[in-house]
Amino acid sequence: MTHSFSRRRLLGGSAALGVAATLPFDVTQAQTASGTLRVGMTAAAIPLSNGVPDQGAEGHRFMGITVYDQLAMWDLSSFDRPPVIRPGLATAWSVDPADPKRWIITLREGVKFHDGKVLTAEDVAFSFDRAFRSDAPHFDNRAAAQARIRMPTIASWRAEGEKTFIVETRTPDSLVPFGLTWIGITHRGAWEAAGRSWDTYLNRAVGTGPYKLEAFSIRERAVLVRNPDYWDVARIPKHERVILLPLPEANTRVAALRSNQVDFIEAPPPDAVPSLRQAGFQIVTNTYPHTWTWHFSMVDGSPWRDIRVRRAANLAVDRSGMKTMLGGLMVEGAGLLPPGHPWHGRPSDPVRTDVVAARRLMAEAGFTARNPLRTKVAISPSGSGQMQPLPMNEAVQQNLKEIGIEIDFEVVEWNALLGLWREGARALVPRGITAINVSYSVHDPFAALVRFLKTEMAPPASNNWGFFSDPGYDAIMDRLYTTFDSTAQDALLAELHAKAVDDRLFLFVAHDLNPRAMSRRVQGFVQAQSWFQDLTPIAMR
């Protein structure tokens, strides 16, 4: 479906507060209770509770690191420094000195699942089978769709005794620990108790995390309750339960917060923030590695194969104006990584706005306002990290029209957009789609750069949506894979990122500030410099 948008309609404002008419039934029935945290998510559905959730990184934030633990986890306890990976269900991981393709992972002693079973390496093997072994009787195709793009080099895995787990990769891969942060661990007995059905399991999920699943309704809500026996005593939740509610429309989230039907909302619309502050609600932001871009198709016939067109589009975007439109809740896009990040590097041609230069480049490429380039971009109306996608995309659309690029939008629901992202640009050629607007966290080397730039990461392997391929880029990443020193890795990543910026491989628009709005009852939340957040310190007053 092709749409054009009216800015007045898109910025319709938070005055439309017809709560009873617009909020789902379950929200209106969610009663304020001491110790209950009610969260309004941006997703249109509750993320899958299978241990490798959908709904992008928001799914992992609310259903991946709550009900489940991973072998390696992120330290989300601080607001003033970037998170680092810490031991989770594994206490140590290292490359075998005799074989750089073999990782030896030591499991934590004494961890219990929610049903009382003690964690062993066989449970980890079961969980990896679920996501990576297509011929396993307990294979879950939905988990595989999320996991395989995170660990594309994985070749085999096995338990060695009760407390050692082995992962082997096709080639040396120094980024394996980052991939481990995505795979939630469950066990065979829980799947069997659900009738050997992953569909039934969604309502009976069993992990080792700080929360237990009490109720799950994919279109309405999920209820998580405190796990008082959690192995990390410091992270036993300080509230009794969490109710997760899918509220994809921004003004509906604000309405729910104002009417005391939720306590905590993601991504409030910028025009609502001043009045929320004035009404006494908490507005929390923080810098973090998250970027809002268009991915360009590089397949035959795509207009974005012409570097003049890519450069012109980047020169046309009024990032300063967009920042004003968003009430200051963004950093102007300067690449996949924000300025000051250790992997940003030193591009020879930093991102900037210059409409005159943009028109000149378009004319060189054969296009003008009277003879425009016409193409289509896939976008979503909401979703995990998408900020305010409709007004933002319309602003970009208007900027590009001024230099001779006319954009139509194909608007699909967020999870469907992620499906198009996984399919890749070649599958969308018949629909005329040559770019896609997907925002994402860029918190680790693979998530930030490798999955988008390496030839072999083209779909279905991972997220090189546009099928970009360049031997020079591949050579840098091949060196990265065999480099296990973090300082040397940083230098390679900075070189890689600067190259991608200079070649304008994406439309660089914004870096998010991750705004949230909360009632005064919410106490103790620490907003980490991460797309992921730890809800366990929250106390409800």
Q: Please, how many helices?
A: 19
**Low confidence ranges:** 1-21, 28-32
Shape: globular
Structural class: alpha+beta
Instruction: Please summarize the sheet with the most strands.
Output: 8 strands, mixed
Count of beta strands: 23
Mean pLDDT: 92
In helices, the fraction of residues equals 25-40%
The proportion of strand residues reads 15-25%
What does this structure look like?
This protein has 541 residues and is an alpha+beta fold. 29% of the residues lie in helices and 21% in strands. The strands form 5 sheets. Strands 1, 14, 15, 16, 17, 18, 19 and 20 form an 8-stranded mixed β-sheet that branches. Helix 12 packs antiparallel against helix 14 and helix 18 runs antiparallel to helix 19. The longest helix has 17 residues.
Outline the fold blueprint.
Elements lengths: L1 E2 L3 H4 L8 H4 L2 H5 L6 E6 L14 H9 L7 E3 L10 E3 L2 E7 L2 E9 L13 H12 L8 H7 L6 E6 L4 E6 L6 H5 L7 H6 L4 H4 L9 E7 L3 E6 L14 E6 L3 H9 L5 E3 L6 H6 L3 E3 L5 E7 L10 H10 L2 H7 L4 E3 L22 H10 L8 E7 L9 H13 L3 E7 L2 H10 L9 E4 L3 E2 L3 H9 L17 H11 L4 H17 L3 E7 L3 E3 L3 E2 L15 E2 L1
